[in-house]
Write the structure tokens for this entry.
Amino acid sequence: MITFGEAMGMFIANQTGPLHTIDQFMLELAGAETNVAIGLARLCLRADWVSKVGNDAFGKFITERLHNENVDISQVLTDDHYPTGFQLKAKVAEGDPEIQYFLNGSAASQLKIADFPEAYFQSAKQMHLTGIPFAISKQARSFAKHALSFMKKNGKTVSFDPNLRPSLWVSKEEMVGEINAAAFQANYVLPGITEGEILTGYTDPRDIASFYLEKGVELVVIKLGPEGAFYKTALEEGTVPGIKAKKVVDTVGAGDGFAVGVISGLLEKLALEETVLRGNVIGALAVQTPGDSDGYPTKPELIDFIKKHVETVV
């Protein structure tokens, strides 16, 4: 599996409170696509990540961290002119933390078609794509469109998580148009229920799924939060109940964890219900830790959790 996008240094507050009152932070890694790559690597699947980082401490931190997680970073470029982005993330007792981004002019936003490693993408079986590269810059959007077109022309499969970031777009109309154009070319589309409503105008998961299936998408899986997830193809559909988290510490990274479960299940050719169950499990584990990917399990941990905590395994 290959993916690409922006990774950031992330300073997580060591105590609760508004960010401007915090004087101690812990350095961690953030990035939707790196989260997915880490999650898949922990499940013993080959995961490759392509991007640019600055020639700085954050860039070195990101590449070393991914290397230690067994993610292939051989095609990550180092930019001597543009820095690696970073963010500040508040610590919360539970729920959604306050986050402030410092990404303007980042190295990853300079990723362009000329940087596309064709042979590297050709070697991959599947590509995972999010909506974030479409939003961070015109160059990165062109790179994303080129990668998507290349993979489709070469008979590869593509999973797509809209991962909407409205603040990065000029308008809602541009965001919806660009994200849907990409989604229509994907094999598997993984929106959250609120994202689905924004992108399609429908509120019922079946209608949201049908909107994409009618455009040629093979599988749509819609994240429903604590209620689980709804999936639909041309031949089957169903809802897989959510996994109750003991305590919700931090919701960031749950959607990427869900994608890890679904992608791994598809690559391993599991039944759809079991595939979506994996997504629910890893999403539930993700929200119980402060870091974006801290809760992602190894393969033995995933199997053990399902045996112990899921009543029915397909």
